[in-house]
Structures are given as structure tokens and as C-alpha cells.
Design a protein that fits this description.
The chain has about 725 residues and is α+β, with helices and mostly antiparallel strands. The protein has five domains: about 220 residues, P-loop containing nucleotide triphosphate hydrolases (Rossmann fold, 3-Layer(aba) Sandwich); about 100 residues, Beta Barrel (Elongation Factor Tu (Ef-tu), domain 3); about 70 residues, Elongation Factor G (Translational Gtpase), domain 3 (Alpha-Beta Plaits); about 140 residues, Ribosomal Protein S5, domain 2, CATH 3.30.230; about 80 residues, Alpha-Beta Plaits. The protein contains 16 helices and 40 strands. The structure holds guanosine-5'-diphosphate (GDP) and magnesium ion.
Length: about 725
């Protein structure tokens, strides 16, 4: 392949709901781009993009796949992505390195929740969106409804560039109001005839054309002037204007397609090449220091890795964008994130598993390399002497959580290695061994996401895993003031043990002043604060420890031992063994024995005094609360709300956005197990949600009773 200049490269990602036709469109683009001479189909399991075994098994995309087409003296880099929420990783990482999004809309369904979610990601990444209405040949295609839904979602900024004469089974062409031509297709392989617009369509076509011209003129004063003067713009001027509007996300042009029949593909590709931004005119790569690095061929070379994957027979492949400069095969670079020296001994252009070696690659281009030592997704490689480190891709919070273990106990270590690798390939898979819960917790974007991982572990690594309900990281705290005296004494043979401590405990509220006087059961306890220690607990919250010993009733050297004893119980709360938090403890009196007192005695005395006081202090179990946002079509609103209420959700707000409802609630984590699966079955897969940790909150008393009983039963078992 020849070397393409920055001015000959366009980078696009194909976005769209599952089943809208992205993979089929990618196949058609590669066919028109002469990368393949026969088109495969998703149903025949022979597309270039869905080439992995698991994708063919499920007949859908699971990973993002970098592809390309050579067309009209340009290299069009295309990243095909999965539509399902579960695999959003591939979408978000691709979005970082492309300059334009092609949003594929299924003409049977119009805008779907998935379309909206993806457009939000595009907006967050400031990426232009071209709207490609696909499946116009399908008997259920509905052009009018689709356009209506586009207008609802994308507002007045939707601009029709093409419209079909007959959507549905007879679909064989469209009127293009930029070219002002009527294109018809004579076969299913893109053979096209350019016709004049039929007389009876002239009026409608002109109307759309005028709207297009106005939209183009809107973004530039000079164009505006020309438009006012002549009432018209040339094709070239229209392109210039649209180009500006698209870049600002102020214009969303609409195209007509049947990816399956290769109708409209060439015009879409022409438009991308003529109007979508070049790599140096859109995507700005920011470094962690806040600098921006321009996309320039003659600058020092620097690449950003957006995808790392394990490929059969090859091993690890790193996919990157050349952010600046020119890389030649054999180039030595340094990983800015970990300092590793890396040599890119070969550089490839890839279309699925098909790879072609190239000798060099210029700023703005997308490629891949193999055999790097220690480089992964989200890392930067620079030529020596440059230390740009690009802002990493921010992945969404997990929303599915499960406990995992190897079926065979001997595999534990191997499993943990494999899960670490899985995380490096897909950062939205998060694995963590929780000391607290004594479980390995695996989190991801949905049940399907985790099941695909399970499939891969079993089929590629012979690792059989078991998934089960994860424990909830409860916390314990107190709600009242309480006191306890505890004497630890042991005098059976040998050296004795003796330690006695008197303590008061109270809830810790950040910012409230230290207490110096307590009244407990009519008894006054006055404190003179001699020392104060603030322990920031690893699991959140605080323990405040006061030394109020007067008259030397306990030696200062025993104070740390008492704190240790208290921490023993903070780590294994007196109620259910969960971590305790937000408590103040004052040791104000006690006793020593001249011979038998030692650290162990005071540690045990501290532990037991704390445990006793804790139980008298209105102890409460706290649970993690998440903020959950559910995006749902209006028709399912009632069902979804009812289900949320059963999950102890507290409604925080509701709003409508372009025909969809957004429900914002606070929900205990304990009620969210497999929520993605329930929501999907409640709404036939048309809803989505996000969740993020908010805070801890006391559980209602009936829930507390249940948890205490469960803990008791568990203790008995052990
Ligand atoms: N009738 C029709 N079917 C299509 C078209 N494009 C894709 N399909 C079918 O829709 C299904 C999903 O297509 P696919 O490309 O996998 O969608 P993706 O999930 O967006 O990648 C497959 O059965 C395709 O054959 C089209 O233009 N017309
Ligand atoms: Mg696909």
C-alpha cells in the first residue's frame, strides 16, 4: 500500500444500535474501497469485521474492528463497533481516535435508545455525526417516521441530503438534493445510474435543496453573503458550509442506504471524503499536562494506543493512531506511561484479521503493530526526547457485578492472571479481590459482557469459572453515645494478663467539635483531652481516638495497644463482621497491674470494651447507595418505575428528552444485582442505564433484622 498523507486520510467510526447494519455497511464500504471483491454477510458468518469465533457464534459484533477502504485517492479508516451496551468499550475507545462518527439508523425503528446513548458519547467527545438511514429496502422501513424521530433527537440541525422515492421492498434509489440528481441502482452490487429528477419530484427536491443550502450558509458569513446575493450556493460552497456545521455538531446530514444491497454507499463515502474533517482539522489530542499536540507529519513522532487485543496465532496486537509525526518500520519509541523502550519492528494496516505491512505511516493515520514488550490501551509512545502523555480514554462505570471463582480451586492463580489480561484488553472489565468480602468481584457492563468473557476463558484458555451473587460491602456505625468498662484478666498459671479500660463512644460527624462532657445514665463523664488521633479508614469514613487518661491510670505506652484492639473490631464490626466507620472513642480511665499488664492485655481489653459499647450505642448497618439513571422509551415507563420501587429506589427526578424518559433514582447496591438483565427483559432491550456510587446510608430496620439473622446463621455454620 502506498503511504497516505494527512490530507488523504479520513477516520470514521460506525455507531448505531445493535442490528442497525454497521457490520454490513463496513463490508460494503470495503467492497467499494476494493479491499475485498466479494461481500460477506453477517448471516453467512463471513464478514471481514465479525471474524472472531465468538462473534460468528452470536452473529453480532462484540469487539471494535479497525478496517479501511482505499477510495478516491484517500484512505478511509473505518472502525466497526458493537451496538450493544455491554460492549461499549469498543465504541468509546474508537471514538478517541476517529474524527467523524457515522451513526447508522435502522429505518425500521428510527432513533433508538442506543442511538441516543451513542450520540451522548459523541457529544462528550466533540465528534461530528453523519446520519446514515439504513435498511431502506426492508419491508418494514419507514422513512417518514425515521426522519421524524431524527428531528426529535437531533433537533433542527437535521439536514436531509437524500430522500428515497420508495422506501420498503421496492427501494432502488434516492434523490440527492446536494447533487440534485436521482440515483437508481440496477443490481445489488452498487451499479448506479445517474438520472434527472422526475418532474413530479422537482418541487419537493427543490424544497430540501433550499433547506440544505441555507444550512450550509448558516455557518459562515461569506457564504451567507453569497447566498443572499444569489439565492444559491455552488456544490463546492455547500460542501464548505456543511463541513463547518458538521464539525461544530450544528449540522447532522442525513443519507439513504441499503447496506445489504450496496445502495448509497458510494455517495456516503464521497461525502465523508469531501466534507468530513481531515485528521488535522478536528481531533485535538491533549496531553496530561494540558498541552495540545498538532497533527503534523513533520513533528516528532508520537502514537496513542486505543486497543490491545490477543489474536490467534499472533499474540498481542496494539492498535494506534499516529497523533503526530511520521513513523517508519523499525522505529524506536518510549512508552510515556511506564518508560519501556519499544521498537515498532513492523507496522500494519488492518482490515479485520487481514493485515498488510506498510513501511511508514503519517500523522492522522490508524495502524497496528505486534510484539511490543509492555504497552497497552491508553498509553502513549513517543520518539526519545519527547514526553507527551495523552489524556486517557475515560471508560464508563461498571453496572454489572458478580463474584467469580475457578471451578477447580487449583486454577485460582491462573484465573487471576487471565482476568488481569482481560482487563488490559477491555478496560470496562474490572476485577478486584476484596479482602473485606473474601470474594473476587468481577464488574462489567452487563451480564452478556461477563458471559462472553466466560465463554472466552473456557474456549480459549480451558478455564472453567463459576459466577455467583456477590456480597455487599456493608458498613457498621453507631447512632448514640454509650460507655463501657472492660477488665481483661487471666491468672491461670505462668505470667498473668491484666488490663482494664473505660471508654465512651459516639458517632463521628465531620466538623463537629470534640466533646468534653458526657452524661450517660445520669452519670457525668468529664474528659480532659490529652491526645487525639484521626484515623482515615481504608474503607471510607473515620475513627477518632482520644486519650483522656488522667493521673496515670493507664501508661501512655499502652494507648497504641488499645487502639489496635479497637481497630480489630472496626475491621470486623460487632454486628455482622463488616467494616465499621465514623466513630469517636475516648479512653478516659482504667487500671493496670504492676506485673501482669502488657500490650496484649490492653489490646484485648480495648477490643472488648469497644464491642460492648458499640452494641449499646444504637448500632446500625449501612449499605452502599448508587445513583442510577434509566433511559427508557415512554411506553415502558410504568413497568420500569414499578420495578424500581420494588428495589427500594428513591425517585430523585424525571425528565423527558426527545421522546424518551430519563428516571434518576437512588438505589441500594443490594437491589441492583442483575438489574441490566431485568431491565432488558422488561423493555425488550430498548432501555439502558448508568450507575455510580453515591454514599453509604443506614438500612431500614427490617433489612437490618434480616442481615443480622443471616449473619448469625452463618456464624453458626462455621
Ligand atoms: N434488509 C436489510 N437488512 C440489513 C441491511 N443491513 C443489515 N441488514 C441485516 O440486519 C442484520 C444486522 O446487521 P449487522 O450488519 O450485523 O448490524 P450491526 O449490529 O449494526 O453490525 C443482519 O441480518 C443484516 O443482514 C440492509 O440494508 N437491509
Ligand atoms: Mg456489527
Amino acid at each position: 500500500m502506498k503511504t497516505y498523507l494527512t490530507s488523504q486520510i479520513k477516520n470514521v467510526v460506525l455507531l448505531g444500535s445493535a442490528g442497525s447494519g454497521k457490520t454490513t455497511l463496513a463490508e460494503a464500504m470495503m467492497f467499494e474501497g476494493k479491499v475485498i471483491d466479494r461481500r460477506g454477510s453477517v448471516d453467512a458468518k463471513n464478514t471481514i469485521s465479525d471474524y472472531t469465533e465468538v462473534e460468528q457464534l452470536y452473529k453480532r459484533s462484540i469487539y471494535s474492528t479497525p478496517l479501511y477502504a482505499e477510495y478516491s485517492n484517500h484512505k478511509l479508516n473505518i472502525i466497526d463497533t458493537p451496538g450493544a451496551d455491554d460492549f461499549v468499550n469498543g465504541v468509546i475507545s474508537a471514538m478517541k481516535v476517529v474524527d467523524t462518527c457515522v451513526m447508522v439508523i435502522n429505518a425500521q425503528a428510527g432513533v433508538e435508545i442506543g442511538t441516543q446513548t451513542l450520540n451522548r458519547w459523541a457529544a462528550r467527545n466533540k465528534k461530528p455525526v453523519i446520519l446514515a438511514v439504513n435498511q431502506l429496502d426492508h419491508e418494514k422501513a419507514n422513512w417518514e417516521n425515521t426522519v421524524e424521530s431524527l428531528k426529535q433527537s437531533f433537533g433542527n440541525h437535521v439536514v436531509i441530503v437524500q430522500y428515497p422515492l420508495t422506501a420498503g421492498e421496492g427501494f432502488n434509489g434516492f434523490i440527492d438534493v446536494l447533487k440534485m440528481k436521482y440515483y437508481t441502482f440496477t443490481d445489488d452490487n452498487g451499479t448506479r445510474v445517474e438520472n434527472e429528477i422526475p418532474d413530479d419530484e422537482a418541487e419537493r427536491a427543490t424544497e430540501y435543496h433550499n433547506a440544505l443550502v441555507e444550512a450550509a450558509a448558516e455557518h459562515d458569513e461569506q457564504l451567507m453573503e453569497i447566498f443572499f446575493e444569489k439565492g444559491e450556493l455552488t456544490e463546492e460552497e455547500i460542501r464548505t458550509g456543511l463541513s463547518l456545521g458538521i464539525k461544530e455538531r450544528n449540522t447532522f446530514p442525513v443519507f439513504c442506504l441499503s447496506a445489504k444491497k450496496d445502495i448509497g454507499i458510494k455517495r456516503l463515502m464521497d461525502f465523508i471524503i469531501n466534507v468530513a474533517p481531515y485528521p488535522d482539522n478536528g481531533n485535538v489530542f491533549e496531553t496530561e499536562d494540558g498541552a495540545t499536540v498538532p497533527c503534523k507529519a513533520d513533528a516528532p513522532a508520537s502514537v496513542f494506543v486505543y486497543k490491545t487485543s490477543m489474536e490467534q496465532h499472533i499474540g498481542e496486537v496494539n492498535y494506534f493512531r499516529v497523533v503526530s509525526g511520521t513513523i517508519k518500520e523499525g522505529i524506536d519509541m518510549v512508552n510515556a506511561n511506564n518508560g519501556t523502550k519499544e521498537r515498532l519492528s513492523s507496522i500494519f494496516v488492518s482490515a479485520g484479521k487481514k493485515r498488510e505491512k506498510v513501511t511508514e505511516m503519517i500523522a492522522g493515520d490508524l495502524g497496528c503493530t505486534v510484539k511490543l514488550k509492555n504497552t497497552k490501551t491508553n498509553q502513549t509512545l513517543n520518539v526519545p526526547g519527547v514526553d507527551s502523555k495523552y489524556v486517557p480514554i475515560i471508560f464508563p462505570e461498571p453496572k454489572f457485578r458478580t463474584a467469580v471463582k475457578a471451578k477447580n480451586e487449583n486454577d485460582d492463580e491462573k484465573l487471576s492472571e487471565l482476568l488481569q489480561k482481560a482487563h488490559q484488553e477491555d478496560p470496562t472489565l474490572i476485577v478486584e479481590y476484596s479482602k473485606e468480602l473474601k470474594q473476587t468481584i468481577l464488574s462489567g457492563q452487563g451480564e452478556h459482557h461477563i458471559n462472553i468473557l466466560k465463554w472466552g476463558l473456557f474456549n480459549n484458555n480451558k478455564m472453567d469459572i463459576e459466577l455467583f451473587a456477590p456480597k455487599i460491602p456493608y458498613r457498621e456505625t453507631i447512632t448514640k453515645i454509650a460507655a463501657a468498662d472492660y477488665r481483661h484478666k487471666k491468672q491461670s498459671g505462668g505470667a498473668g494478663q491484666f488490663g482494664e479500660v473505660h471508654i465512651v463512644i459516639e458517632p463521628h460527624i465531620e466538623g463537629s467539635p470534640d466533646t468534653t462532657m458526657y452524661k450517660i445514665d445520669g452519670k457525668e463523664i468529664k474528659l480532659s483531652l490529652r491526645g487525639k488521633e484521626e484515623v482515615n479508614l481504608d474503607w471510607g469514613g473515620k475513627l477518632i481516638y482520644y486519650n483522656s487518661i488522667v493521673g496515670g491510670s493507664i501508661d501512655a505506652r499502652f494507648m497504641p495497644a488499645i487502639l489496635k484492639g479497637i481497630m480489630d473490631k472496626m475491621e470486623e464490626g460487632p454486628l455482622t463482621g463488616s467494616y465499621a466507620r465514623d466513630i469517636r472513642v475516648a479512653v478516659y480511665d482504667g487500671k493496670m497491674h504492676p506485673v501482669d499488664s502488657n500490650e496484649l492485655s490492653f489490646r484485648l481489653a480495648g477490643r472488648n470494651a469497644f464491642k460492648e459499647a458499640f452494641k449499646k450505642a444504637g448500632p446500625k448497618i449501612m449499605e452502599p447507595i448508587y445513583e442510577v439513571k434509566v433511559y427508557v422509551p415512554a411506553e415502558y415507563m410504568g413497568d420500569v418505575m414499578g420495578d424500581l420501587q420494588n428495589r427500594r429506589a428513591i425517585i430523585e427526578g424525571m425528565e423527558s428528552e426527545s421522546g424518551f424518559e430519563i428516571i434518576k433514582v437512588r438505589v441500594p447496591l443490594a437491589e441492583m444485582y442483575k438489574y441490566s438483565t431485568s431491565l432488558s427483559s422488561l423493555t425488550s432491550g430498548s432501555a439502558t442505564f448508568s450507575m455510580k456510587f453515591l454514599d453509604y446510608q443506614q438500612v431500614p430496620s427490617d433489612v437490618q433484622d434480616k442481615l443480622l439473622k443471616a449473619y448469625e446463621a452463618e456464624e453458626k455454620d462455621e
